[in-house]
Design goal:
The complex is a heterodimer of chains A (91) and B (457). Chain A is built from four helices and four strands; from the N terminus they run E-H-E-H-E-E-H-H. With 91 residues, chain A is α/β, with parallel strands linked by helices. Chain B is built from 16 helices and six strands. The chains are: A alpha/beta (91), B mainly alpha (457).
Chain lengths: 91, 457
């Protein structure tokens, strides 16, 4: 099963909000994937085992897996675009 | 009436891990969640309470003997364990009236928007817990539920107004347009304002430090398990433990810090259908207006300055805890001081050196207020039974968010003249913060432009 990670400052609040939302969208689209909230302080350890990274921040670092804009899921602006991209990455 | 009261009392006596899920299920069904979803969310909420109880108990069992060893060996009394924000969130959600904070938040935000007093729509509903914590602290100090809601409402207004004037600065730091941080921790900027003003007059502190390389090198120390391990080792040594005892304590400390967020996100999982529904509702009501979307602080987490500053403050906080007379808090689960870093990042415009110095100046404020609130917090834990404490065990939060606001407003209800005076001073500083940050826009723009040119050349 593919793994999607969402990171925020503690891996508790914002990341879990986005993770729950994304998981719901994926379930509705019948796409099987694990969406997990993680702590951004330990992000480097999670990246190698993940397929997609949904970022809440604009970091200075580039990762070698596809990275999506998590802010869109919080504000609702541009959410459809990010959703479509995520679906195409997972199927 | 008596019967009804008995029923309520019976339910409350079951403890937070039972009655809060019940409230969640009732609220969920009331806002037309599906039965199945509401039921599932309710149980997860109960699991979150039970899980937090397990981790907190584990942490206290590991740290309490070490704290006693420290006293016996050195006479330094750090008998209040810093249980961090996730534990305080557990206590906050255990308040029977906690869920009423959702409609209050929606109402205050809607009124300010309709009156054109704010441009910010706070969609970060999870953080009503900050207002709930303020409210329970007010009740703990004054015993007045009405006052608790009034002060929570004042906090909501302050958060939104600060989010308005911070928006430009946050957009610059994050590079994300149209968003701001409506989290209460930005309120601490009001207290930082005069110190930041003083520091900005000293050219020496205007030096630019490259945070990116430092973050790459030292970022590992901010990771929960590494931080926990190091604090465990230091504490073991200070308590006169043997090597095996020290290493065991270090692993236990690392385990506690690693497990806290894993368990705490269950709260979020349980509450997210509800908070999502509320934020969708609010967004649809105001969709014709161009608004700043108020989010939680982690949108700032891409700034390496923030992480470097919190790492530098860790040894400083530990040192202060030992040397400050009258501090009884043992910094642990809350030692990463985001409550300071987030507002300092914005008020200094990302000047790392000034951020670090602001932290050095004001860390004692956090420790003293954490010590001051410890009896209230410990009492709350015992009253709600959300956290089981042995007699003599005390907990607090070493980096309690917006400590000054919370302390002043919780204690003003006691009616002392000095209390009113301090709240008055705080209010004046708030106005000053509002005006300064609003006016600062242009100044910052030019500053960044010159910096950019220098980089290019």
């Amino acid at each position: 099963m593919k793994r999607v990670i969402v990171a925020c400052g503690s891996g508790v609040a914002t990341s879990q909000t986005v993770a729950s939302k994304v998981q719901k969208i994926l379930n509705q689209n019948r796409i099987k994937a694990n969406v997990e909230a993680v702590d951004i302080k330990s992000l480097d350890q999670y990246i190698p085992q993940s397929d997609v990274y949904i970022a809440i921040t604009k970091g200075s670092k580039d990762y070698n897996i596809p990275t999506l804009n998590g802010i869109a899921f919080l504000t609702g602006m541009g959410m459809e675009e990010e959703t479509n991209q995520l679906i195409s990455l997972l199927t | 009436m008596d019967v009804l009261q008995n029923v309520f009392q019976y339910i409350l006596d079951l403890g937070a891990s039972v009655f809060v899920p019940l409230i969640m299920i009732i609220v969920g069904i009331a806002v037309r969640m599906k039965w199945k979803e509401a039921f599932s969310a309710g149980i997860i909420l109960g699991v979150a309470f039970a899980g937090m109880g397990v981790v907190i108990g584990f942490m206290l069992d590991a740290l309490t003997p070490a704290g006693q060893g420290l006293v016996e060996r050195t006479g330094i009394e750090l008998n209040i364990v810093d249980a961090g924000w996730t534990s305080l969130a557990t206590l906050a959600w255990a308040w029977p009236l906690a869920f009423l904070m959702f409609p209050l938040q929606m109402g205050v935000n809607a009124i300010l928007l309709v009156m054109n007093k704010t441009e910010t729509l706070n969609v970060d509903l999870w953080n009503v817990w900050g207002k709930i914590l303020t409210a329970v602290l007010v009740i703990g100090v004054t015993n007045s539920v009405a006052l608790a809601f009034v002060i929570a409402a004042i906090q909501m207004v302050a958060e939104l107004l600060i989010a308005d004037v911070n928006q430009k600065h946050i957009e610059k730091v994050t590079g994300i347009p149209g968003v701001t941080v409506s989290h209460g921790m930005m309120i601490f900027g009001v207290f930082l304002l005069p110190f930041n003003w003083l520091l900005s007059k000293v050219p020496l502190f205007d030096r630019h430090i490259d945070a990116n390389t430092l973050k790459e090198k030292f970022g590992v120390f901010a990771e929960n398990h590494v931080m926990g391990f190091i604090i465990g080792v230091l504490l073991g040594i200070a308590a006169g433990y043997t090597v095996p005892e020290t290493l065991t304590l270090a692993i236990q400390a690392a385990a506690a810090l690693t497990l806290f967020p894993m368990v705490a996100k269950l709260f979020m999982q349980a509450l997210s259908p509800l908070s999502d529904a509320i934020s969708e509702f609010m967004k649809s009501r105001f969709k014709h207006r161009k608004l700043n979307i108020g989010l939680d602080w982690p949108i700032l987490a891409g700034s390496n300055e923030l992480w470097v500053a919190v790492i530098v403050w860790v040894p400083i906080t530990l040192l202060y805890a030992i040397i400050l007379p009258g501090n009884n808090v043992l910094p642990f689960a809350g030692i990463i001081n985001i409550s300071m870093a987030a507002p300092a990042l914005i008020i200094t415009g990302g000047n790392l050196l000034r951020m670090i110095i602001l932290g050095i100046i004001t860390t004692p404020v956090f420790l003293y207020i954490a010590t001051g609130f410890a009896p209230t917090i410990t009492q709350l834990a015992q009253d709600t039974e959300a956290i089981a404490l042995d007699s003599g065990q005390m907990i607090s939060w070493s980096t309690i968010e917006y400590p000054v606001f919370r302390y002043l407003f919780a204690h003003v209800g006691e009616g002392h003249l000095l209390g009113f005076l301090f709240v008055g001073i705080w209010a004046a500083l708030f106005v000053l913060y509002f005006k300064t940050m609003k006016a600062r826009k242009v100044e910052d723009d030019t500053a960044e432009e010159t910096e950019y040119k220098e980089n290019v050349m």
